[in-house]
Amino acid sequence: CTTLKSAKKYVNEWLQARTDQGLSAWTIQLEAKAMGKLYGISPDDENYFKPPKRNREDIKRSRGVRVRDKHFSKTNNDELIRFCKGTGLRRRELSELRGKDLVTREQIEAEISRLESRPAAELTPGDTKRLGMLQDTRLFEGDYFTHVRSGKGGRERLSPIIGLDSAQIIERMQNTPGEEKVWQHVHKSADIHGYRAEYATAMYKAHARPIEEIPYDRVNKGSGRKYQSEVYICRKDEAGRKLDKAAMLVCSKALGHNRISVVADNYIRGL
Fold it and tell me: CA separation (Å) from 253 to 22, 148, 258?
């Protein structure tokens, strides 16, 4: 314990060395937070390490050709790629998906009816949370969903199966025994995040309204000018680009994220 305390004075020096090694701003940010928590240094403390800014253009994942791409055959893994683009699952979610995790809208609506028919006082916090998750599916189109039992942060969700390959995806899951994995092996070089981004972009496009059709419904207290509260204006390298907040919400629910800004910063591409 004494050794740990004595090492506190070297925290910033260590983090700077990590920065100098060329590690990403995201990694440094995470490590700075971990050190701050360990030693009780708050972000507003003058001694708190100021990590480099995180910019969208610096994201390396799923951008351009990588060495790993040379070891991945798109032809041999065609069905996996189509499956990923139609479900938007993360790598771990994909590897844990089982036959029983195919859920129909009919099943969802039946469970919603059962929960809503019970007196509110009888519902446990777990019941209420589950009801909210089930009701989220009404934001989506389509009749089939993948049930993600434990996504990022342990969050449970139902994600719609979309796209031209929906029938093939549904058939694969229907033909997989309930307790068996839909994918026994997920190629380590498969660009899962890239396919997930394509799913997100397709989802956004399917629900987005033309920006000019979104009403000007608020007034800026400072300038007195009307503005569109349902329009998200991107920042940094995407500064000025406008997105439909309602479509972003649908997209974030499908992906298993809580903040719509994550969708804009990491997933929606090529608009």
Answer: 34, 12, 7
